[in-house]
Write a structure and sequence with these properties.
By secondary structure, this protein is α+β, with helices and mostly antiparallel strands. It contains 9 helices and 6 strands; from the N terminus they run βαββααβαααααββα. It has helices at residues 16-32, 58-66, 70-86, 103-113, 118-130, 139-148, 153-158, 163-178, 201-217, and strands at residues 5-11, 38-44, 56-57, 98-99, 186-189, 193-196. Helix 1 packs across helix 9, helix 4 (103-113) packs across helix 8 and helix 5 crosses helix 6.
Length: 218
C-alpha cells in the first residue's frame, strides 16, 4: 500500500452529495486508469447524530435544519436525481421518506474494512436508502445489506453491541471534527490535502493526476 495514493472519504450513508461525489471520483479514477494505484477508506460522519430511532420525515427535517421551502427542496431533489442519473445512480425521493440514524451503519462499515468490502458495503447502504426506500437503521435491512455483499451478517451485527466498536467510531468521528471537517463529503488525499463537496469529474482528474505524478517522483 505504500506506493498507493491514500484517499479518506469522510461521509454519511444518507448524504446524497457524498454519493454523487464518490461516483464522480470513481469515474475520474476509471477514466485515468489508476484503479490499482488508489487505496480508499471511508471515515464516519453523522449528519444527524441526535436523530431518534423513529427517524424524521425528510421534508420536515430539511425545513427544520436549513429553513428550505418545499419548492426549494423539490428543486434540490430533482437536481440530485439528475446528477445521479448521469452517474448511473438512482435517487428515488418520495413524500414519506424518513431521515434516519446511521451510527450502526458506520460500525458495520468499520467491520467491512477488514474484509476489503468497505466501499461495496457503503454503496449498498446508500442504494438501499436512496434507491430502494429502505431504512438503514433497521437490523433486518442492515443484515440483508451485509449478506448482499458477501459478509458474515451474524459476526458483523454482533459488533453493534460491542462497546469497543462503538468507541472506535466515536473516536474516528472526533478525530475528523478536530481537524475541522464539518461538511461532507470531505475527500482527503494522503492525509495532506483535501477537497470538499461533489467536485466535477474533471476537477478530480486534475487533482488525482497531480498527486499520482508527485507520488511517482518521490
Amino acid at each position: 500500500m505504500a506506493n498507493k495514493l491514500k484517499i479518506d472519504i469522510v461521509s454519511d450513508v444518507v448524504c446524497p452529495w457524498c454519493t454523487i461525489g464518490y461516483k464522480r471520483l470513481e469515474k475520474a479514477i476509471s477514466e485515468l486508469g489508476i484503479e490499482d494505484q488508489i487505496d480508499i477508506e471511508w471515515q464516519p460522519f453523522e449528519l444527524n447524530p441526535n436523530m431518534p430511532a423513529e427517524g424524521q420525515n425528510v421534508i420536515e427535517h430539511i425545513t427544520e435544519k436549513y429553513g428550505s421551502t418545499l419548492d426549494q427542496q423539490r428543486a434540490s431533489q430533482q437536481h440530485m436525481a439528475d446528477a445521479g442519473e448521469e452517474l448511473g445512480f438512482k435517487f428515488d425521493y418520495f413524500d414519506e421518506m424518513r431521515m434516519v440514524n446511521t451510527f450502526d451503519a458506520h460500525i458495520l462499515l468499520e467491520y467491512a474494512k477488514d474484509f476489503g468490502k468497505q466501499t461495496e458495503l457503503k454503496m449498498a447502504f446508500t442504494k438501499a436508502f436512496f434507491s430502494d426506500r429502505k431504512d438503514v437503521s433497521k437490523k433486518d435491512v442492515l443484515k440483508e445489506t451485509l449478506l448482499s455483499v458477501g459478509l458474515n451478517a451474524e459476526d458483523a451485527l454482533a459488533k453493534l453491541d460491542s462497546e469497543d466498536a462503538r468507541l472506535e467510531v466515536r473516536e474516528k468521528q472526533g478525530y475528523w471534527k478536530e481537524l475541522g471537517v464539518n461538511s461532507v463529503p470531505t475527500i482527503v488525499f494522503n492525509r495532506k490535502s483535501a477537497v470538499t463537496g461533489a467536485q466535477p469529474v474533471d476537477t478530480f482528474k486534475q487533482v488525482l493526476s497531480e498527486l499520482i505524478a508527485e507520488q511517482k517522483s518521490i
